[in-house]
Every structure is written in structure tokens, then in C-alpha cells.
Amino acid sequence: SYELTQPPSVSVSPGQTASIPCSGDKLGLKYANWFQQQPGQSPVLVIYEDTKRPSGIPERFSGSNSGNTATLTISGTQAMDEADYYCQAWDSSTVIFGGGTKVTV
Amino acid sequence: QVQLVQSGAEVKKPGASVKVSCKASGNTFTNYDINWVRQATGQGLEWMGWINPNSGNRGYAQKFQGRVTMTTNTSISTGYMEVSSLTSEDTAVYYCARGISAYYSPGKGWLYFLDVWGQGTTVIVSS
Question: Does the distance separating the beta carbons of B118 and A99 come in below 8 Å?
Fold first, then answer.
């Protein structure tokens, strides 16, 4: 079965750029989506179709996807961005989640 | 704005079953899939399966096949997820989420994402 791998944690200083990788076999040949989950809250879609932001998501969130790695980038990271982030792809009619990355600001 | 409102917390004994509901606001319930995702305390998101209210088609994660049943009642825009033979390992927050199957691209496959999530339902399995 298809797997997505994320680092357990990423640390970033306020105002700096955080990059969260998500790796999978030929992931660039699939669409990658990203979710943010604050403690005690439901996940929120922050990036879909590799690079697109849903309405209401700040411009500091961006995404890319090529080769075997999709990346969520948070530019000018703010304290409110401290959360867990999950990548997601679709494979063989199933939803695949990465293991999640805790971003500490 | 579509909202998904889930049923309240449940406490069940090992071996029992639990049925969680997910009611959608708005009148587009049959246009999208309902997915179910669970999360044990301190753990990541675990996808359980999806159901399309219009066609009745569904797909379950292999881990849950035979133990999970997903249904819908389109007349009240509500989806249901039942898990049987509960063990302590099933203690988790269960979420429903709307699944968007946007389009198929020959080079990338299907674009499928979960755009709206319910508030979550806590299920505790304890003797």
C-alpha cells in the first residue's frame, strides 16, 4: 500500500520560513493536499491540488510537489502557526495521510 | 457555508458497537462523499473509508473491512459510521469530512481532498 512519510517535528523561529516535507514514491505524479490541526481542534485544509489555498487561508502558506516530495512552506511564520500538519494524497480509491509533523514556533 | 455536525460522545464496553452520525447543512449532501477519519490521543489521522450518498458506493480501509459500516440517509442529509466488536484500541476521536473528487488528470490521477470537517466525536471503549 502507498505510504507518505513526514518528519515528526520541525522547529522555526518567529518570522522565519518553515518547510515541511512529505515523501512518497513518485508523489509528484499525484496531487498533494495539506491540513493544519491545532490542539483540540478539527483539521483544516490549508493547501489542495499541490499549490492552491482555500478561501481564508493566509498567503504565507504555500505548497509544491515534484519528484518524490511535496513541501508545505510557511513564510513569515507566526506563533499562531504552531500546530500539527498532515499531508494527504489519493491512491487506489483510498485516502492516504502522512504521519504528521509538529511545527514548533 | 457547509457545516458537518456530529453526534455526541459515547462510552462503550469492549465487544459492543458504536454508531456515529454526521449531519450536513445546506442542500448539496448528495454531491460529495462523506469520509470518516479517526485519531487516537496523541496520534495521527487514520482514514477509515468513504461513502457517496448519491450512488451508495463506498470504500473502506483494509484495516476496517468487516468491522465498519458506512451508510447515509439522504432525506435528512446525514451520514453514519458504525464500528462493531470494539476494543480499547478503538478509543479515539472520530471525524467525518466532506470528500471532493474534483477531476481526473492523466498525468496526476484524481484530485481528491477533504474540505470540510465535523467537530469530532469522542468514543471511549472501557470496561
Answer: no
The average pLDDT across A70-91 equals 98
CA distance B126 to B114: 31
Contacts of B112 in chain A (CB under 8 A): 31, 90, 95
Determine whether the interchain pair A93/B62 forms a contact, defined as Cβ–Cβ distance below 8 Å. no
Query: Cell for B38?
Result: 479517526
- Residue position matching grid coordinates 471511549: B124
pLDDT digits (tens, 9 = 90+) for B36-93: 999 999 999 999 999 999 999 999 999 999 999 999 999 999 999 999 999 999 999 9
| Min distance A16 CA to chain B CA atoms (Å) | 26
What is the Cα–Cα distance from B92 to B87, expressed in whole angstroms? 11
Task: Return the amino acid letter for B70.
Answer: M
